[in-house]
Amino acid sequence: xxxxxxxxxxxxxxxxxxxxxxxxxxxxxxxxxxxxxxxxxxxxxxxxxxxxxxxxxxxxxxxxxxxxxxxxxxxxxxxxxxxxxxxxxxxxxxxxxxxxxxxxxxxxxxxxxxxxxxxxxxxxxxxxxxxxxxxxxxxxxxxxxxxxxxxxxxxxxxxxxxxxxxxxxxxxxxxxxxxxxxxxxxxxxxxxxxxxxxxxxxxxxxxxxxxxxxxxxxxxxxxxxxxxxxxxxxxxxxxxxxxxxxxxxxxxxxxxxxxxxxxxxxxxxxxxxxxxxxxxxxxxxxxxxxxxxxxxxxxxxxxxxxxxxxxxxxxxxxxxxxxxx
Length: 325
Known about the structure:
Blueprint: H1 4-28, E1 35-42, E2 46-47, E3 55-58, H2 62-71, E4 76-81, H3 99-111, E5 116-121, E6 134-135, E7 141-142, H4 143-160, E8 164-167, H5 174-184, E9 190-197, H6 204-210, H7 230-242, E10 247-251, H8 257-267, E11 271-275, H9 277-288, H10 294-308, E12 312-315, H11 318-321
Parallel strand pairs: 1-3, 1-4, 1-12, 4-5, 5-8, 8-9, 9-10, 10-11, 11-12
Antiparallel strand pairs: 2-3, 6-7
Helix pairs in contact: 1-10, 3-4, 4-5, 7-8
């Protein structure tokens, strides 16, 4: 049993760490307004085993869950939907009564404009293959057919009340297709484009939740960006800017911070970065083994993303680090 002296030292050390973390965020210029928390919406509650501490939230509990986010001082979320059923083209993704659309309406009914809602615009969770595009009979992803579906999804989200729609499929022309559809329907949601979404195994924990029934390995390298090709990533970003994206996205985060700085230097444009599920799981797993200081790594990770130049940071660590800001 620890002595009173040991307890006092532990308390002192904890206070010292807390002050250090606050100083790190202050020096990096991080504010709570820069942070976006990911929310999984499903038909039933479920813990995600590969992402300790993260769960899927059913519609009936979504307002209560979002209240806990607001209580942390966070005013921005991004919603990922996990549907009950799937079909070849992911039609439930643009259903006006779909899971994301219902979640948006429920949250907006409870919080109005005090909670900004971004939505993931993709079909990978909604179709039978797990690919981000419609797969033709020849086994290839049909870019142009997918654009039509992405535009319908984005419009349905905006009609439900989404503030920002975020096409994440990495289809050529996705920003133009979404902007044109929003304009034709006189919808004013902003567009955050997943412009440099790299092919990576760091999405695996997310996929284990989103594609639980898909057992084959998903190879998305034909439309996602290669780790080694920064020039292609920059071209993808420049194209999305020219197509009218209000903000561009780079993901994963920690192995692409050089690219964040390149984009800020070259384009001086708003940049979001997603600290993805695999990055979250790595820190959690190492901390559970006692190999690292979890809070230190959370803080250092988020601070490094902000220091690189990110204007918005999407991270599963958001609620954990909010207390230090």
